[in-house]
Specification:
Layout: H1 3-69, H2 71-77, H3 85-102, H4 112-136, H5 142-155, H6 160-175
Helix pairs in contact: 1-6, 3-4, 3-5, 4-5, 4-6
């Protein structure tokens, strides 16, 4: 037998097992990818079941933070009676800082946009209080400062805390 015919005979014997091996390899690769994809989605679903309650709690706490630092609610909690404007101003700023610091870790559960809205609401509320304090001076009665803060908030279309609360609520709606 000449070498060419021998090579052809060997190829005839080798091609069918090679084709079978190739088909088996392709099917195995396809099944492996399908299994990995299924496993990924199962893990993703389990993760969502664990993190969703935590995320909802974070949104709830941040909405509550916005309610607690809104000027009207803040003034109801921090009594101006018996304080001058400087004392009331210092206490209002302190309460805002403490409330914010207490909820600082919630940022890991919300989007960057929502966290920025919360930070902006805090900063704008502090600015509003600082502006009112500047206008009243520090030797007057705290009631004067509280009245001016309420007058300024009434003139606003939306309070910064309301805007942040809307952002938070809209994100929660998108979760479902």
């Amino acid at each position: 037998m000449d070498p060419l015919q021998l090579g052809i005979e060997i190829l005839k014997l080798l091609i069918p097992p090679l084709v079978v091996a190739l088909v088996v390899w392709i099917m195995n690769d396809h099944n492996q990818k399908k299994y990995e994809k299924s496993r990924y989605f199962k893990l993703l679903n389990q993760t969502r079941q664990i993190t969703l309650p935590l995320r909802l709690q974070a949104y709830e706490r941040l909405v509550l933070l916005m309610e607690r630092i809104s000027p009207a609610n803040l003034l109801m909690r921090v009594s101006p009676h018996g304080k001058n404007t400087r004392q009331l101003h210092a206490e209002l700023i302190k309460v805002i800082r403490e409330e914010f610091d207490h909820n600082l870790t919630q940022q890991i559960y919300v989007s960057d946009e929502a966290w920025e809205a919360v930070k902006t609401a805090r900063e704008e509320t502090v600015k509003l209080i600082n502006m009112a304090f500047t206008q009243t001076g520090d030797s007057r009665d705290g009631i004067d400062l509280s009245k001016l803060i309420l007058e300024v908030t009434i003139k606003l279309d939306k309070l910064p805390t309301q805007i942040a609360s809307e952002v938070l609520r809209n994100e929660v709606r998108r979760l479902f």
